[in-house]
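Second attempt. The first submission of EF-hand had a stray character pasted in from the spreadsheet, which I only caught after the job came back as garbage. Lesson logged: always re-copy from the clean sequence file. Corrected sequence (452 aa) follows.
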Amino acid sequence: MATNSTATFDLLPHSKHVDWESSETTFRMYVGYLSLLFDIGVLTYHFTTPFHPKFYVKTARRRILQLHILSGCLEIIACVCAFYAEDPTKYAYAAAAFGAIAHVPSTFYQIPTVLGIKAFLVPSLGLVTALHGYFAINLVLNPTSFYYLLSTYLTVHIYAWSRVFFALYYRFKLFEGHRFSAAMLTSGTLLVPSVLGLRGNIGLITFVIISDIILRSTGTVEFWKAWTTEHPRELASNPEKKVVLEALVTAAEVSNAVESLSVQEPKDRYSRICATVMTANARNTSPREKAYAVFRAIDVNRDNELSVGEFKDFLIACGISTFEMEDKLMLEGLFQNRKVVTADDFCAWFTKSWIHSSSISVPRMPSTPRGQAKLVFDTLDADGSGALDLVELETLLTSWGLPRNEAAGYLKDHDKDHSGTIEFQEFYDTMGTVWKFAIQSFIDEGKIRIEE
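This time the job returned cleanly.
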Protein backbone atom coordinates (compact mmCIF):
# COMPACT_ATOMS: atom_id res chain seq x y z
CA MET A 1 0.00 0.00 0.00
CA ALA A 2 1.30 3.41 -0.92
CA THR A 3 2.01 5.74 2.00
CA ASN A 4 2.73 8.98 0.18
CA SER A 5 0.73 11.75 -1.39
CA THR A 6 0.96 10.23 -4.86
CA ALA A 7 -1.27 7.31 -3.87
CA THR A 8 -4.38 7.05 -6.02
CA PHE A 9 -5.84 3.93 -4.42
CA ASP A 10 -5.94 2.57 -0.86
CA LEU A 11 -7.25 -0.79 0.31
CA LEU A 12 -10.23 -0.58 2.69
CA PRO A 13 -10.76 -0.60 5.56
CA HIS A 14 -7.51 1.15 6.42
CA SER A 15 -7.19 -0.64 9.78
CA LYS A 16 -6.84 -4.02 8.08
CA HIS A 17 -4.32 -3.03 5.45
CA VAL A 18 -1.62 -1.11 7.31
CA ASP A 19 1.78 -1.86 5.82
CA TRP A 20 3.62 -2.77 9.03
CA GLU A 21 6.62 -3.86 6.95
CA SER A 22 7.27 -0.22 6.12
CA SER A 23 9.32 1.49 8.84
CA GLU A 24 7.91 4.88 7.84
CA THR A 25 4.33 3.71 8.14
CA THR A 26 5.06 1.92 11.41
CA PHE A 27 6.56 5.09 12.89
CA ARG A 28 3.54 7.12 11.80
CA MET A 29 1.13 4.57 13.26
CA TYR A 30 2.90 4.46 16.63
CA VAL A 31 2.87 8.25 16.81
CA GLY A 32 -0.84 8.12 15.95
CA TYR A 33 -1.67 5.60 18.68
CA LEU A 34 0.35 7.51 21.27
CA SER A 35 -1.41 10.71 20.21
CA LEU A 36 -4.78 9.09 20.86
CA LEU A 37 -3.62 7.98 24.29
CA PHE A 38 -2.37 11.45 25.16
CA ASP A 39 -5.68 12.95 23.99
CA ILE A 40 -7.30 11.48 27.08
CA GLY A 41 -4.88 13.27 29.39
CA VAL A 42 -5.10 16.56 27.51
CA LEU A 43 -8.91 16.54 27.50
CA THR A 44 -8.93 15.70 31.22
CA TYR A 45 -6.64 18.68 31.77
CA HIS A 46 -8.89 21.01 29.77
CA PHE A 47 -12.05 19.94 31.57
CA THR A 48 -10.54 20.17 35.06
CA THR A 49 -8.28 23.23 34.71
CA PRO A 50 -9.44 26.80 33.97
CA PHE A 51 -8.19 28.41 30.79
CA HIS A 52 -5.11 30.64 31.00
CA PRO A 53 -6.22 34.15 32.12
CA LYS A 54 -5.22 35.61 28.75
CA PHE A 55 -8.31 33.95 27.26
CA TYR A 56 -10.55 35.97 29.58
CA VAL A 57 -9.23 39.33 28.40
CA LYS A 58 -11.49 39.21 25.35
CA THR A 59 -14.71 37.20 25.11
CA ALA A 60 -14.04 36.48 21.43
CA ARG A 61 -10.72 34.85 22.28
CA ARG A 62 -12.37 32.54 24.79
CA ARG A 63 -15.12 31.60 22.33
CA ILE A 64 -12.54 30.86 19.64
CA LEU A 65 -10.64 28.64 22.07
CA GLN A 66 -13.82 26.72 22.88
CA LEU A 67 -14.49 26.26 19.16
CA HIS A 68 -10.89 25.16 18.72
CA ILE A 69 -11.15 22.46 21.38
CA LEU A 70 -14.56 21.21 20.21
CA SER A 71 -13.63 21.07 16.52
CA GLY A 72 -10.35 19.35 17.36
CA CYS A 73 -12.14 16.66 19.38
CA LEU A 74 -14.69 16.07 16.61
CA GLU A 75 -11.97 15.95 13.96
CA ILE A 76 -10.02 13.33 15.91
CA ILE A 77 -13.14 11.20 16.45
CA ALA A 78 -14.01 11.40 12.74
CA CYS A 79 -10.45 10.39 11.77
CA VAL A 80 -10.54 7.36 14.05
CA CYS A 81 -13.94 6.32 12.66
CA ALA A 82 -12.64 6.71 9.11
CA PHE A 83 -9.65 4.51 9.92
CA TYR A 84 -11.83 1.60 11.08
CA ALA A 85 -14.90 2.02 8.80
CA GLU A 86 -15.49 -0.22 5.79
CA ASP A 87 -16.38 2.93 3.85
CA PRO A 88 -14.44 5.86 5.31
CA THR A 89 -15.82 8.47 2.91
CA LYS A 90 -18.40 10.21 5.13
CA TYR A 91 -16.10 10.19 8.15
CA ALA A 92 -13.20 11.53 6.08
CA TYR A 93 -15.40 14.34 4.81
CA ALA A 94 -16.46 15.13 8.39
CA ALA A 95 -12.85 15.16 9.64
CA ALA A 96 -11.76 17.39 6.78
CA ALA A 97 -14.67 19.77 7.39
CA PHE A 98 -13.99 20.11 11.12
CA GLY A 99 -10.33 20.73 10.35
CA ALA A 100 -10.54 23.08 7.38
CA ILE A 101 -13.60 25.07 8.48
CA ALA A 102 -13.09 25.34 12.24
CA HIS A 103 -9.85 24.00 13.70
CA VAL A 104 -7.36 25.48 11.24
CA PRO A 105 -8.90 29.01 11.22
CA SER A 106 -9.20 29.02 15.03
CA THR A 107 -5.53 28.01 15.28
CA PHE A 108 -4.42 30.82 12.96
CA TYR A 109 -6.47 33.25 15.09
CA GLN A 110 -4.57 32.22 18.23
CA ILE A 111 -1.04 32.02 16.80
CA PRO A 112 -0.19 35.77 17.20
CA THR A 113 -0.85 35.52 20.96
CA VAL A 114 1.03 32.27 21.50
CA LEU A 115 3.10 32.01 24.65
CA GLY A 116 6.82 31.24 24.52
CA ILE A 117 9.34 32.83 22.15
CA LYS A 118 7.33 34.12 19.21
CA ALA A 119 10.39 34.23 16.92
CA PHE A 120 10.37 30.41 16.95
CA LEU A 121 6.77 29.51 17.64
CA VAL A 122 4.78 31.84 15.38
CA PRO A 123 6.50 30.74 12.13
CA SER A 124 6.66 27.05 13.11
CA LEU A 125 3.04 26.94 14.31
CA GLY A 126 1.98 28.81 11.18
CA LEU A 127 3.71 26.22 8.99
CA VAL A 128 2.26 23.22 10.86
CA THR A 129 -1.21 24.75 10.78
CA ALA A 130 -0.90 25.41 7.04
CA LEU A 131 0.10 21.76 6.60
CA HIS A 132 -2.95 20.73 8.59
CA GLY A 133 -5.17 22.75 6.27
CA TYR A 134 -3.39 21.34 3.20
CA PHE A 135 -3.93 17.74 4.30
CA ALA A 136 -7.57 18.40 5.27
CA ILE A 137 -8.35 19.88 1.84
CA ASN A 138 -6.65 16.98 0.10
CA LEU A 139 -8.63 14.56 2.26
CA VAL A 140 -11.81 16.07 0.80
CA LEU A 141 -10.44 15.46 -2.69
CA ASN A 142 -9.21 11.95 -1.78
CA PRO A 143 -11.51 10.66 1.00
CA THR A 144 -10.18 7.08 0.79
CA SER A 145 -6.51 8.09 1.01
CA PHE A 146 -4.77 6.58 4.03
CA TYR A 147 -1.89 9.06 3.71
CA TYR A 148 -4.08 12.16 3.83
CA LEU A 149 -6.25 10.71 6.59
CA LEU A 150 -3.30 9.89 8.83
CA SER A 151 -1.50 13.17 8.04
CA THR A 152 -4.61 15.18 8.90
CA TYR A 153 -4.94 13.23 12.14
CA LEU A 154 -1.29 13.74 13.11
CA THR A 155 -1.05 17.47 12.40
CA VAL A 156 -4.05 18.21 14.61
CA HIS A 157 -2.09 16.82 17.56
CA ILE A 158 0.75 19.33 17.88
CA TYR A 159 -0.82 20.91 20.97
CA ALA A 160 -1.47 17.55 22.64
CA TRP A 161 2.17 16.60 22.24
CA SER A 162 3.31 20.00 23.48
CA ARG A 163 1.31 19.46 26.70
CA VAL A 164 2.98 16.07 27.15
CA PHE A 165 6.47 17.50 26.69
CA PHE A 166 5.64 20.49 28.91
CA ALA A 167 4.56 18.14 31.72
CA LEU A 168 7.71 16.06 31.21
CA TYR A 169 10.02 19.09 31.31
CA TYR A 170 8.18 20.47 34.34
CA ARG A 171 8.48 17.15 36.17
CA PHE A 172 12.24 16.99 35.68
CA LYS A 173 12.80 20.77 35.97
CA LEU A 174 14.18 21.08 32.45
CA PHE A 175 14.33 24.28 30.33
CA GLU A 176 13.24 26.48 33.22
CA GLY A 177 12.21 29.87 31.89
CA HIS A 178 11.79 28.51 28.35
CA ARG A 179 9.68 25.44 29.08
CA PHE A 180 6.71 26.32 26.87
CA SER A 181 8.90 27.12 23.86
CA ALA A 182 10.91 23.93 24.33
CA ALA A 183 7.75 21.83 24.55
CA MET A 184 6.21 23.32 21.41
CA LEU A 185 9.42 23.01 19.40
CA THR A 186 9.92 19.40 20.49
CA SER A 187 6.37 18.48 19.48
CA GLY A 188 6.88 20.17 16.11
CA THR A 189 10.12 18.35 15.39
CA LEU A 190 8.35 15.07 16.20
CA LEU A 191 5.18 15.60 14.17
CA VAL A 192 6.58 17.31 11.06
CA PRO A 193 8.81 14.33 10.13
CA SER A 194 5.88 12.00 10.76
CA VAL A 195 4.03 13.58 7.82
CA LEU A 196 6.86 14.87 5.62
CA GLY A 197 9.79 12.65 6.53
CA LEU A 198 13.16 13.95 7.72
CA ARG A 199 13.14 16.67 5.08
CA GLY A 200 10.24 18.18 7.02
CA ASN A 201 12.46 19.43 9.86
CA ILE A 202 14.89 20.96 7.38
CA GLY A 203 12.00 22.81 5.79
CA LEU A 204 10.68 23.87 9.21
CA ILE A 205 14.03 25.29 10.35
CA THR A 206 14.56 27.05 7.02
CA PHE A 207 11.10 28.61 7.15
CA VAL A 208 11.65 29.91 10.71
CA ILE A 209 15.05 31.41 9.85
CA ILE A 210 13.82 33.15 6.69
CA SER A 211 10.74 34.50 8.48
CA ASP A 212 12.82 35.95 11.30
CA ILE A 213 15.40 37.46 8.95
CA ILE A 214 12.61 39.32 7.15
CA LEU A 215 11.00 40.48 10.40
CA ARG A 216 14.34 41.52 11.91
CA SER A 217 15.08 43.73 8.91
CA THR A 218 11.64 45.36 8.86
CA GLY A 219 10.56 45.48 12.52
CA THR A 220 11.33 48.05 15.21
CA VAL A 221 13.65 47.46 18.16
CA GLU A 222 10.67 47.24 20.52
CA PHE A 223 8.94 44.71 18.25
CA TRP A 224 12.06 42.55 17.95
CA LYS A 225 12.59 42.59 21.71
CA ALA A 226 9.02 41.36 22.29
CA TRP A 227 9.37 38.88 19.42
CA THR A 228 12.46 37.23 20.94
CA THR A 229 11.40 37.36 24.61
CA GLU A 230 10.03 34.29 26.34
CA HIS A 231 6.37 34.76 27.29
CA PRO A 232 5.99 32.07 29.94
CA ARG A 233 2.73 30.35 30.73
CA GLU A 234 3.40 31.11 34.40
CA LEU A 235 3.79 34.56 35.91
CA ALA A 236 7.55 34.18 35.70
CA SER A 237 10.46 36.10 34.31
CA ASN A 238 13.35 35.58 31.98
CA PRO A 239 16.03 34.03 34.25
CA GLU A 240 18.78 36.20 32.75
CA LYS A 241 16.73 39.35 33.31
CA LYS A 242 16.07 38.20 36.87
CA VAL A 243 19.81 37.96 37.56
CA VAL A 244 20.35 41.51 36.30
CA LEU A 245 17.43 42.89 38.29
CA GLU A 246 18.57 41.16 41.44
CA ALA A 247 21.99 42.70 40.92
CA LEU A 248 20.39 46.13 40.50
CA VAL A 249 18.38 45.75 43.69
CA THR A 250 21.46 44.59 45.53
CA ALA A 251 23.25 47.69 44.28
CA ALA A 252 20.58 49.82 45.89
CA GLU A 253 20.74 47.90 49.16
CA VAL A 254 24.52 48.05 49.41
CA SER A 255 24.64 51.72 48.41
CA ASN A 256 22.14 52.62 51.11
CA ALA A 257 23.66 50.37 53.75
CA VAL A 258 27.29 51.32 53.13
CA GLU A 259 27.60 55.05 52.55
CA SER A 260 31.33 54.83 51.94
CA LEU A 261 30.65 53.15 48.63
CA SER A 262 29.56 56.45 47.16
CA VAL A 263 33.05 57.90 47.43
CA GLN A 264 35.03 54.87 46.30
CA GLU A 265 36.43 54.39 42.85
CA PRO A 266 33.74 52.96 40.53
CA LYS A 267 35.68 49.75 39.91
CA ASP A 268 36.01 48.97 43.62
CA ARG A 269 32.46 50.09 44.27
CA TYR A 270 31.00 47.80 41.62
CA SER A 271 33.17 44.91 42.76
CA ARG A 272 31.84 45.18 46.30
CA ILE A 273 28.29 45.44 45.00
CA CYS A 274 28.66 42.33 42.85
CA ALA A 275 30.32 40.40 45.67
CA THR A 276 27.10 40.68 47.66
CA VAL A 277 24.63 39.89 44.88
CA MET A 278 24.03 36.33 46.03
CA THR A 279 23.83 37.12 49.76
CA ALA A 280 21.96 40.40 50.16
CA ASN A 281 18.31 40.31 51.21
CA ALA A 282 15.79 42.44 49.34
CA ARG A 283 14.31 45.27 51.31
CA ASN A 284 10.52 45.30 51.61
CA THR A 285 9.93 48.29 49.35
CA SER A 286 7.94 48.85 46.18
CA PRO A 287 9.61 48.38 42.79
CA ARG A 288 9.58 52.14 42.21
CA GLU A 289 11.36 52.79 45.50
CA LYS A 290 13.91 50.13 44.60
CA ALA A 291 14.25 51.70 41.17
CA TYR A 292 15.08 55.13 42.55
CA ALA A 293 17.55 53.67 45.03
CA VAL A 294 19.20 51.71 42.22
CA PHE A 295 19.40 54.85 40.11
CA ARG A 296 21.23 56.70 42.89
CA ALA A 297 23.55 53.74 43.37
CA ILE A 298 24.78 53.56 39.78
CA ASP A 299 24.64 57.28 38.94
CA VAL A 300 28.35 57.61 39.67
CA ASN A 301 28.79 61.35 38.97
CA ARG A 302 25.56 62.27 40.81
CA ASP A 303 24.25 64.46 37.98
CA ASN A 304 20.76 62.90 38.23
CA GLU A 305 21.18 61.37 34.79
CA LEU A 306 22.29 57.88 33.86
CA SER A 307 24.59 57.57 30.87
CA VAL A 308 25.05 54.55 28.63
CA GLY A 309 28.60 54.26 29.94
CA GLU A 310 27.53 54.19 33.58
CA PHE A 311 24.94 51.50 32.91
CA LYS A 312 27.34 49.44 30.78
CA ASP A 313 29.98 49.59 33.52
CA PHE A 314 27.52 48.28 36.04
CA LEU A 315 26.25 45.43 33.83
CA ILE A 316 29.81 44.39 33.04
CA ALA A 317 30.57 44.34 36.75
CA CYS A 318 27.52 42.10 37.19
CA GLY A 319 29.06 39.60 34.79
CA ILE A 320 27.08 40.60 31.68
CA SER A 321 29.34 40.87 28.63
CA THR A 322 29.01 43.56 25.97
CA PHE A 323 27.88 40.90 23.50
CA GLU A 324 25.15 39.72 25.90
CA MET A 325 23.96 43.30 26.40
CA GLU A 326 23.42 43.69 22.68
CA ASP A 327 21.96 40.20 22.35
CA LYS A 328 19.37 40.85 25.08
CA LEU A 329 18.65 44.38 23.89
CA MET A 330 19.07 45.65 27.46
CA LEU A 331 20.57 48.95 26.44
CA GLU A 332 18.03 49.55 23.67
CA GLY A 333 15.17 48.78 26.03
CA LEU A 334 16.28 51.45 28.49
CA PHE A 335 17.98 54.13 26.38
CA GLN A 336 16.10 53.83 23.05
CA ASN A 337 18.86 55.60 21.11
CA ARG A 338 19.31 58.27 23.79
CA LYS A 339 22.68 59.05 25.36
CA VAL A 340 21.29 59.57 28.86
CA VAL A 341 18.09 58.83 30.76
CA THR A 342 16.55 60.65 33.70
CA ALA A 343 15.55 59.13 37.01
CA ASP A 344 11.91 59.00 35.85
CA ASP A 345 12.90 57.19 32.64
CA PHE A 346 14.93 54.67 34.60
CA CYS A 347 12.18 54.12 37.19
CA ALA A 348 9.59 53.52 34.47
CA TRP A 349 11.85 50.96 32.77
CA PHE A 350 12.77 49.28 36.04
CA THR A 351 9.24 48.94 37.42
CA LYS A 352 8.04 47.57 34.09
CA SER A 353 10.82 44.96 34.10
CA TRP A 354 10.50 44.20 37.79
CA ILE A 355 6.96 42.81 37.69
CA HIS A 356 6.99 39.01 38.04
CA SER A 357 10.81 39.03 38.20
CA SER A 358 11.65 38.64 41.87
CA SER A 359 10.70 36.30 44.65
CA ILE A 360 8.00 37.41 47.06
CA SER A 361 8.79 37.52 50.78
CA VAL A 362 5.86 37.10 53.17
CA PRO A 363 5.67 36.35 56.92
CA ARG A 364 3.34 33.41 56.16
CA MET A 365 1.44 31.99 53.24
CA PRO A 366 -2.04 33.60 52.93
CA SER A 367 -4.68 30.99 53.78
CA THR A 368 -7.80 32.85 52.61
CA PRO A 369 -8.81 33.71 49.03
CA ARG A 370 -8.80 37.39 49.89
CA GLY A 371 -5.30 37.18 51.33
CA GLN A 372 -4.04 35.36 48.25
CA ALA A 373 -5.66 37.93 45.96
CA LYS A 374 -4.01 40.74 47.96
CA LEU A 375 -0.61 39.10 47.59
CA VAL A 376 -1.02 38.94 43.81
CA PHE A 377 -2.43 42.48 43.66
CA ASP A 378 0.52 43.93 45.59
CA THR A 379 2.91 42.10 43.24
CA LEU A 380 1.27 43.57 40.15
CA ASP A 381 1.01 47.05 41.72
CA ALA A 382 4.53 48.01 40.68
CA ASP A 383 4.47 51.60 41.93
CA GLY A 384 2.77 50.78 45.24
CA SER A 385 -0.09 53.19 44.53
CA GLY A 386 -2.80 50.84 45.77
CA ALA A 387 -4.37 50.54 42.32
CA LEU A 388 -3.53 48.97 38.97
CA ASP A 389 -3.20 51.54 36.22
CA LEU A 390 -3.06 51.19 32.44
CA VAL A 391 0.74 50.80 32.33
CA GLU A 392 0.69 47.99 34.89
CA LEU A 393 -2.07 46.18 32.98
CA GLU A 394 -0.12 46.62 29.73
CA THR A 395 2.88 45.00 31.40
CA LEU A 396 0.75 42.10 32.61
CA LEU A 397 -0.86 41.45 29.22
CA THR A 398 2.33 41.79 27.19
CA SER A 399 4.04 39.33 29.54
CA TRP A 400 1.41 36.83 28.29
CA GLY A 401 2.17 37.68 24.68
CA LEU A 402 -1.01 39.71 24.15
CA PRO A 403 -1.20 43.01 22.24
CA ARG A 404 -0.55 46.06 24.39
CA ASN A 405 -3.62 47.85 23.01
CA GLU A 406 -5.97 45.33 24.65
CA ALA A 407 -5.14 46.72 28.10
CA ALA A 408 -7.42 49.75 27.70
CA GLY A 409 -10.44 47.57 26.98
CA TYR A 410 -9.54 45.24 29.84
CA LEU A 411 -9.29 48.21 32.20
CA LYS A 412 -12.66 49.52 31.07
CA ASP A 413 -14.32 46.13 31.64
CA HIS A 414 -13.04 45.77 35.21
CA ASP A 415 -13.00 49.42 36.35
CA LYS A 416 -16.47 49.40 37.87
CA ASP A 417 -16.25 52.83 39.50
CA HIS A 418 -14.78 54.46 36.34
CA SER A 419 -11.79 55.82 38.26
CA GLY A 420 -9.31 54.95 35.53
CA THR A 421 -7.62 52.33 37.72
CA ILE A 422 -8.49 48.98 39.27
CA GLU A 423 -8.59 49.06 43.07
CA PHE A 424 -8.12 45.92 45.14
CA GLN A 425 -11.83 45.26 45.69
CA GLU A 426 -12.46 45.43 41.93
CA PHE A 427 -9.47 43.16 41.38
CA TYR A 428 -10.74 40.65 43.93
CA ASP A 429 -14.34 40.68 42.69
CA THR A 430 -13.86 40.72 38.90
CA MET A 431 -10.37 39.36 38.17
CA GLY A 432 -10.55 36.02 39.95
CA THR A 433 -9.19 34.18 36.93
CA VAL A 434 -6.00 36.26 37.18
CA TRP A 435 -5.24 36.04 40.88
CA LYS A 436 -6.23 32.37 41.22
CA PHE A 437 -3.97 31.47 38.32
CA ALA A 438 -1.19 33.71 39.63
CA ILE A 439 -1.15 32.36 43.18
CA GLN A 440 -0.91 28.80 41.88
CA SER A 441 1.85 29.90 39.50
CA PHE A 442 3.76 31.53 42.37
CA ILE A 443 3.52 28.29 44.37
CA ASP A 444 4.49 26.05 41.44
CA GLU A 445 7.49 28.20 40.53
CA GLY A 446 8.66 28.57 44.14
CA LYS A 447 8.44 32.37 44.03
CA ILE A 448 6.90 32.77 47.49
CA ARG A 449 9.53 32.91 50.23
CA ILE A 450 8.43 32.59 53.84
CA GLU A 451 10.38 34.96 56.09
CA GLU A 452 11.97 33.37 59.13
